[in-house]
């Protein structure tokens, strides 16, 4: 079993930045692809970013491309999401997730993941 705990959320003004962390425990996630998703009130959970197990490949939703950066430190069993130039539309609960599935096309949908964290709230004020 893998336990994931997100941290780093909070309230920030538009144009500001936050860095989210996702700490894994229970087993090493060095062989897992790790993704970030978000869910705003009344909306479905949506893909934000994903990083493969070695950290060599990253993919982003168009809405965050150029503003967000996903990274991982396998020695610390931790994944990060650096969020810059935040916009009110980025307000949501952010979740990290882990999957051992190697088919990259599955990484863009929540159903492609085996483990989830409890989420951290990000609120961007205008």
Class from helix and strand fractions: mainly beta
Query: Oligomeric status of the shown chains?
Result: single chain
How much helical structure, as a percent, in the residues? under 10%
Q: How are helices and strands ordered from N to C? A: EEEEEEEEEEE
Q: Tell the overall outline.
A: globular
Please indicate the percent range of residues in DSSP E strands (runs of 2 or more).
Answer: over 45%
Average of pLDDT: 96
> What is the count of DSSP helices, taking H or I runs of 4+ residues?
0
Count every beta strand, where a strand is a DSSP E run of 2 or more residues.
Answer: 11
Low-pLDDT stretches: none
Radius of gyration: 13 Å
Largest sheet: 7 strands, mixed
For the terminal residues, how far apart are their CA atoms?
Answer: 40 Å
Please explain how this structure is put together:
By secondary structure, this protein is an all-beta fold. The protein contains no helices and 11 strands. The chain is globular, with a radius of gyration of 13 Å. The model has no long low-confidence stretch (mean pLDDT 96).
């Amino acid at each position: 079993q893998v336990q994931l705990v997100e941290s780093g959320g909070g309230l920030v003004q538009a144009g500001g930045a936050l860095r989210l962390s996702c700490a894994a425990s229970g087993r090493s996630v060095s062989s897992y692809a790790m993704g970030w998703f978000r869910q705003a009130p009344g909306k479905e959970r949506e893909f934000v970013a994903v990083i493969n197990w070695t950290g060599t490949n990253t993919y982003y939703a168009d809405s965050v491309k150029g503003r967000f950066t996903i990274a991982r430190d396998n020695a610390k069993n931790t994944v990060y999401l650096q969020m810059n130039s935040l916009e009110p539309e980025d307000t949501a609960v952010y979740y990290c997730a882990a999957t051992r599935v190697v088919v990259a096309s599955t990484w863009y949908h929540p159903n492609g993941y085996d483990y989830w964290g409890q989420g951290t709230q990000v609120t961007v004020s205008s």
